[in-house]
Amino acid sequence: MKKNIRNSFWMQMVVSIFGVFGLLVVSTAYILYSTVQLQKYADQSFQKERYLKNVQEAFLAYQEPLLEYLSTRSSNALAKYLIESQNLRKVLPEPAAITYDLNSIREQTVYSLIRRYLDMADVVVEQKRGRNIEGYIGLYAEMTSLLVYINKEIEHVSTERFKSQIDTYGHFIRYSQNIILSNLLFIICISLFSVVLLMYSVQKMTGPMVHLSAMATEISAGNFTVEDVSLSSIYEIDHVIDAFNKMKKEISHYIEEIRLQETIKQEYMQERMRNLKMEDLLRRMETYTLQAQMNPHFLFNTLNTGMQLAIVEGAEKTAEFMEYLSLLFRHNIRNKDIIVPLRHEIEGISYYFYIVKLRFPKNLKLILECPEDIQDLYKVPVSILQPLVENCIVHAFKNTEKEGIIEVRGELKDRFLYLTVQDNGCGISKEKIDQLLHPLPIEETSSKVMGLENVIQRLLFFYPDTPNVITIQSSPDMGTTIQICIDTEKNPCIAC
User: Fold this and answer.
1) Comparing C-alpha atoms, which of 196, 231, 225 is closest to residue 211?
2) φ, ψ for residue 364 (rounded to 5)?
3) 472, β-bridge pairs
4) Cβ distance 319 to 282 under 8 Å?
5) Residue 481's beta-bridge partner residues?
């Protein structure tokens, strides 16, 4: 992140401080300006009165050197007189334009009379210098009368002007009040603007930190999906925000890795538990096999002895029955593999069919259909068809006298091998079907699982990723159809 002095925290503080200071300077300048304007207004209101007062003072100052010269004929008094005369003439205004204001007319008359008085004074001085005593005494008497009249007129004009200023004073008061009110409003506006500027500057500097604190609270609660904190315009704060966003991403990535490892660990433990269950199932199957293989030679010798005895006595059907029974037993114990070719199951079921036909020649009909071309191509778990047929014979027809029909079919559709066992018996209840298709875990079952339950549990273990590997359809008194669906492109789990 490139550092820029204009975006630094220090520069933001300096700008804020000088901004407020500039506003204070502007407000002070405005107040000073308004005060000066008020003074100008007051000065303009009393300017004429002050001017008339100055003229009167200059006129009175002019009298002293005049009287001194007339009394003493002093050269100093004459010089002073000439200076005061010149100053007084400079103070007097030029004749103004014609006006209809009575007070202004009288004021102009006063100025004219003063000029007349000055002219008469110049004449008196000349007569004094020429020693014309009678002339300057008579003229001085006339000047004295004129002086009294001029003073009265000045007092009268001042009085009248003061009376007129009483009304002007009301305007002055209102004007000053407006100035004060304007100053107050300006100060309030400047103060509010200064507060807003300071609040904006503070929010600009503290807002990202507040947002950062809120995001830290979210992350501490475990919520790492919040959006990144947006950058501000202050370098130091942006540096902290950038580090915080990187930390959040790294922590989130680290937690995701931990979750992934935990998921893998759980999957591994589940797979291990499933393998342990399968090993337990295999041990049970081996136990059942060992139990079935106990004393096989004694069993075969006994069956052969019975078959020879039946032949000697002429019981041909009994001899045939015992011969197929011997073949079935040899078939079941001959192959110890768990996964066998489909032909092995078909041969075993054909032996079993023959024996069952001898037992139920009239009340039971068995149908076996499976194409020859698929019997050697595909393999299935051992002993998954005979228990289903046996289950039909034991349970489906025990409370009926009608002819029982059991059909066993094998067919290939696309990549799926379908093995179907169907009967027309009494059927299975929906609750029982749900119980069969959702067996309890192995550790919760009894020590022996026989028949249909054994087949379902083994199929679910061999094909855990195929939940519909076996389906059961049944209706009361309408028979039952059990179908096994095997994906030929997937090997049974036990063979992996």
Assistant:
1) 231
2) -140, 130
3) 482
4) no
5) 422, 473
Q: What end-to-end distance do the CA atoms of the chain give, in Å?
A: 55
What pLDDT sits at residue 285? Answer: 57
Per-residue pLDDT tens over the stretch 432-488: 888 888 876 655 555 445 578 888 888 888 888 887 899 999 888 888 999 999 998
Q: Is it the case that residue 23 has pLDDT exceeding 80?
A: no
Q: Are strands 364-369 and 404-413 parallel, antiparallel or unpaired?
A: parallel
CATH fold for domain 363-495: Heat Shock Protein 90 (3.30.565)
Mean pLDDT of 217-238: 68
**pLDDT tens digits along 142-197:** 888 888 888 888 888 777 777 766 666 667 677 777 777 877 887 888 788 878 87
356: number of Cβ within 10 Å: 17
What distance in Å separates the CA atoms of residue 84 and residue 67, rounded to the nearest whole number? 13
* Complete DSSP assignment for 421-489: EEE-SS---HHHHHHHHSPPPGGGS-S---HHHHHHHHHHHH-TT-TTSEEEEEETTTEEEEEEEEETT
Dihedral in degrees, nearest 10, Cα atoms 32, 36, 37, 43: 160
Beta pairing, strands 364-369 & 379-381? unpaired
Q: Hey, where are the domains in the chain?
A: 5-216, 363-495
Q: Taking the model in full, what pTM does it have?
A: 0.43
Written as one string, the DSSP assignment of 7-65 is: GSHHHHHHHHHHHHHHHHHHHHHHHHHHHHHHHHHHHHHHHHHHHHHHHHHHHHHHHHH
Separation of alpha carbons 127 and 122, rounded Å: 9
Q: Rounded to 5 degrees, what angle do the CA atoms 338, 465, 486 make?
A: 55
What's phi and psi for 407, nearest 5 deg? -115, 130
Q: Does residue 262 surpass a pLDDT of 90?
A: no
